[in-house]
Amino acid sequence: MTKTATIYMLAVLAALAVAGDRAAAQTSPSDTRALRADIERRFEVDRLRNGVALRPRDSSRGIRLIEVTDGPIAVDGQPATGAELREKLGAADAELVLRLSYLADAQRRDLFGVDAGVPTAPTAAPPPPEPPRAPRRPSPRFRGRSDQDRVSVFSGGINVREDEVVDGDVVAIGGSIRIDGDVRGDVVAVGGSVTLGPRASVDDNVVVVAGALHRDPGARIGGRVQEIRVGSMDFSNMRGFNPLWLWWGSMMGSAVAFVGTVARFGILCLLTALVVLFGRPYVERASEQAWNEPLKAGAIGVLAQILFLPVLIITCVVLVVTIIGIPLLFLIPFIILGLAVVGLVGFTGVAYRLGNVLASRFGWATDNPYTTTIIGIAMVLAPLLLARLINLGGFVMVPFSFGLGLIGALIEYLAWTIGFGSVALARFNRRASSNIVPPPEIVTPATT
Amino acid sequence: MAVIAVVATVATAYLLLPIAAWGFVRLLTSTLNGCIWLAASLSSGNDVWTIAGTVGRAAAATLVTPMASGVIAALIGVGAVAVFGLQRLLGSEEDSSR
C-alpha cells in the first residue's frame, strides 16, 4: 500500500511538473519595446537558435556572456539563479535579464527579430553571419548521415563521428556517448558519460543521468544541459567486466537487499504492534472479514487501488485549474497517509488471523495478540526472506530464488490488498448494521 | 494457458518499457524545468498568487490538448468502472447486512 502511494505521489509530482513546465512559457511582458531598448542599452545582443546571448557593454564585472534560452540562464556557460545573477550583474541588469527570461521563446525571438518593427539601437551591431562550415568528408562507416535515432541499451557506447549528422536523438542506457559530429535532437545518457568534442554540435538538450559530462569549450549545445548525479555511479565500462567482480557485486547487492527486507520486517512488526495497541477492535473486525470473505475483500482492495490513481490525478488537475484550490494540494499527502494507515490496519488484521491459524495448527499457546501478529507477518514475509537468503550465494542462485521472490511479493501484495478491502468491508458492515431499525418490543400483558 | 500468459506478459513489457523509459526521462526534465521556473519566479519577487495563476493557466492550456484530454477521459472511464465495481460489491454487502 505504501509503495503504491509512493508511485502515485510521483504521478502527482509529474502533473505539477508539467504544469510548471508550461508555466515557464506563459509569462507575458508588460512593455516589450521598453525592455528591448533597456537591454540594448546595457548589452550587445546576439540571436541564438533557441534564445539570445547578451554581452555586457560594461566589462567591469568581468562577465563575458549571458545566455537566455528556454532553459536556465547561463552566465559564462554556468547556470545561475536569480540571486547569483544579481550578485554577478548588479540588481538593475539582473532584473532586465530575468524579465527577458520570463518571455515565451517565440516572444523572445520576435523581440530581437529583424521583422519586429522596433528600431534597433544604433550601438547594437547585427550579429555577424555564422561562417559556413567546411564541407565534411563522408564517414566510411555511417556515410555521413543517419536519419534515425541512435539508441544503445547496455550494448556499449555510441560514437558520432566528426563527419556524421544524426537527424534524431542519441540515447545510451548503460553506456557512454561521444559526439564529434552533429546531432539534430537530444543527447541522453543514463548510467554513462557524454563527451562533446571541439566540433560537436547538439541542437537540443543534453541530459546525463548518473554519469559525467565532458564538454570541449568549442562544443555547441542548442538546448539546455541537465546533469543528474547519483553518487559515483557510472556503468559505462560494461564491456570489459570480470565475472568474479560481477559475482562479488551481486553478493553484496543481495546482502543489502536481505538486510533491507529484515529491516522492513522489523519496522512492520513495530507499526503493527502500535495498531494492535491502539485499534485492536478494528484489527479484529478486519481479521474476521478477511477470513470470512477473502475473495470479496481482495476484489474491493484491487478496485480501490485502481480507483485511487484516477481520483488522485483528477483531483489534482481540478485543484490546479481552479487556481484557488492550489493551496489545498498540500492536504493530499495527508490523505495518502490516511489511506496508508487504513492499509496498515488491514494488513495487521490479516497477519493477526494468519498468526492465530498457525498457532492453533501447531498447538502454540499464544494469547498475546502482539506475538500472534508478528508470527503472521513472519509467515507473510517468509518466502521473500528465504529468496533473499538464497540470493546471498550470488547471481548463480537467481534461477532458484527468482520464482520464490515472485511468490513472496505476490503473497505480500495479496495480504495488503485483502487487508485494505477487509477494512472497507468491516466499515460498511458496521454502517449497514447501525442503519437497521430494531424491531418493536412486544409487550405481553401481565397475566394475573 | 501458462504459455499464453507468459507471452502476453513479455509482449506487454516489451511494449510498455519504451513508454515507461520515455515517461521517466520526460518526468525528470519536466520536474527540473518546473523547479527551476518556480525558483526563478520566487527569487524575482513574484507573489504566490501570481505564480499559482500562471501554473493554473498553464495546466488549463495543457488540458485542452487532445492527448491530455484523452488521458483524462481514459482515467475517468477507469475510475467509473472501479466505482461501479465497488458499488456492486459494497452495496450487496450493505443489502445482505440488512
Task: Describe what you observe in this structure.
The complex is a heterodimer of chains A (448) and B (98). In chain A, 51% of the residues lie in helices and 14% in strands. In chain A, α8 packs across α9, α8 crosses α10 and α9 packs antiparallel against α10. The N terminus of chain A is likely disordered. In chain A, the strands form four sheets. Chain A has a five-stranded antiparallel sheet with strand order 1-2-3-4-5. Chain A has a five-stranded parallel sheet with strand order 6-9-12-15-18, with no helix packed on it. Chain A has a five-stranded parallel sheet with strand order 7-10-13-16-19, with no helix packed on it. Chain A is of the alpha/beta class. Chain A has three domains: 110 residues, no CATH class; 87 residues, no CATH class; 190 residues, no CATH class. Chain B has 98 residues and is an all-alpha fold. Helices cover 92% and strands 0% of the residues of chain B. Chain B is built from three helices and no strands. The two termini of chain B are 42 Å apart. Chains A and B meet through α1, α4, α7 and α10 of A and α1, α2 and α3 of B.
What's this entry about, in short?
The complex is a heterodimer of chains A (448) and B (98). With 448 residues, chain A is α/β, with parallel strands linked by helices.
